[in-house]
Amino acid sequence: MTVRKNIIAGWMAHLVTVLIGFFMMPYILGTVGEAQYGAWVFINAVAGYSSMIYAGFGATICRYVADLSSRREWQKLNSVVSTIQLVYVGTASLVFAFTGLFAWWAPSLKHWAGLPLGEIQLSILIVGCTIGMGMIASVYGGVLVGTQRLDIKRGIEVTLGIVRLLLTLLCLHEHYGLVTLALIFFGVTVIEHGVSAWFAYRQLPQLSVAFWHARRDVFKECVGFSAFNAIALLAEYLIFFTDTIVIGFVLGPLAVVPYQIGLRIAQMIQIPISQIGEAVLPRAGELYARGQKWELAHLVNRGMGVAFLLSGGFLIGSIYFGELLIRTWIGPQFAGSQHVLVLLVASQLIALPMVVARKALLGIGQVKVQAWIDLLEAGINLVLSLIFIHYWGIIGVAWGTIIPLYVVELAVLLPYAARQLGLERRALWHTVVAPQLPAQVALILFCEYAVRVTPESGWLPLLAVTLGGGGVLLSVRWLMHLLERRSSVTTRPITGEVEALAGST
């Protein structure tokens, strides 16, 4: 599939996921209550740390499958996939052990708000088994990504997301609690990986995943590529789960709920825009291998420009209508979550354009320095969150995220990426930032008017301002694109499908 089609496929899948999430979260919260929902989020955040021991092998599978399948080296391909699965069997064993320890230790944590400890412990065990089993079977999803069949992978995720929604509605209607949620996620995960394996074997009939294909020399080769991916993954999980973990331990799982509302909306915004980076990665590798440095820089600039346009639009919308969204979606009692939402979305104004640069760096094989930069940012995030939470509560945790992100990514990561990818400072301004500003200013003017005439809650007003604001943003950007084309005296060859995508926005 092309870069453009992969981005669109990812966006369509995410649209369905967002709709499911919007429906499920308030329903689950209203059915099981704040205490159980906060405990559920906290348990998953703690268990999510175990995913760090994927050790960067996920990207290794994608890279080697893409390379070896194109050269039809089936024996080496089977050795790589089988070796990595054997590694995952070992890491899954560590997950099971960690889960047992967490379940045993859980009663000593005094913030469970009176929930039955037996139910808490059983839920922890089920979640841990889900993660461990999914780790072993995840190689098949890596095969699908490596063969550039993201459409199949996204289709599986969307279909089973709908199944999970229906099962959740059915079971929670009968007033089951945390254990039911854990069992639903376990069952759906088993089905997801089973279907992924079936499609992987259909996509690559020569695929054979078995322990006897594993080889020591292949393991050493994979470790060499995966080591710095593992550091980057460690940093990603530290950043992703730090906020929830810190809040859960310091203030208790109940305090996780208002923060999670803002975080959930920010993630819904983040994921579709980050698909641009995922689609840029293989194209960047191809251009770099061909020595097409100008085209590589042009691709990255355009991708970062689209990410900056959309993340800026979402930030403006969150400032003006974040409270309306939360009131309508969850209820007026959580309207204060807007402050968390605005801070977290503000962090994406820098983070999302840099995702494109990060993926391009990965595509050209530059992972070492980037990994250490990510780890630096994650460490500062953790320290600041632990300090600020004692002064400003959950708002302090949000500031603990945004400060290191702006400082490290702008002062350290961006200059490094510019050197490696051939990005010029002038081009960054004229391609990434400046063309998006008129559209974002127009959106601000629209919001200034709309906020005065929009009711305090209601899905219809929310839908109206969303469609209106999106229309203003994209229309003005399209007009600017036409003016840019008309005023340009000379044109360079259009490189990559992200150029077409940027023009369409």
Structural summary, described in words:
This protein has helices spanning 3-48, 57-70, 74-105, 117-137, 139-146, 150-172, 178-203, 216-250, 256-289, 293-329, 337-363, 368-421, 425-433, 437-453, 459-487, 497-504. With 505 residues, it is mainly alpha-helical. α4 packs parallel to α7, α5 (139-146) packs across α7 and α8 packs across α12. The model is unreliable at 489-505 (pLDDT under 50).
Keywords:
mainly alpha, 505 residues, globular, 16 helices
Please specify the SSE layout and strand pairing.
Elements: H1 3-48, H2 57-70, H3 74-105, H4 117-137, H5 139-146, H6 150-172, H7 178-203, H8 216-250, H9 256-289, H10 293-329, H11 337-363, H12 368-421, H13 425-433, H14 437-453, H15 459-487, H16 497-504
Helix pairs in contact: 1-4, 1-6, 1-8, 1-9, 2-3, 2-5, 2-8, 3-4, 3-8, 4-7, 5-7, 6-7, 8-12, 9-10, 9-11, 10-11, 10-13, 10-14, 10-15, 10-16, 11-12, 14-15
Poorly predicted spans = 489-505
Total helix count?
16
The total count of strands amounts to: 0
What structural class do helix, strand and pairing data support?
mainly alpha
What is the number of independent domains? 2
Give the overall pLDDT as a whole number: 80
Binned strand content: under 5%
- List the helices and strands in order: HHHHHHHHHHHHHHHH
Global Rg? 23 Å
Shape: globular
Helix content, binned percent: over 70%
Span from first to last CA? 21 Å
Q: Report the biggest beta sheet as strand number plus sense, adding barrel if it closes.
A: none
InterPro entries: Poly_Biosynth_Transport, Polysacc_synth
Protein name: Membrane protein involved in the export of O-antigen and teichoic acid
GO cellular component, one term: plasma membrane
Main location: membrane
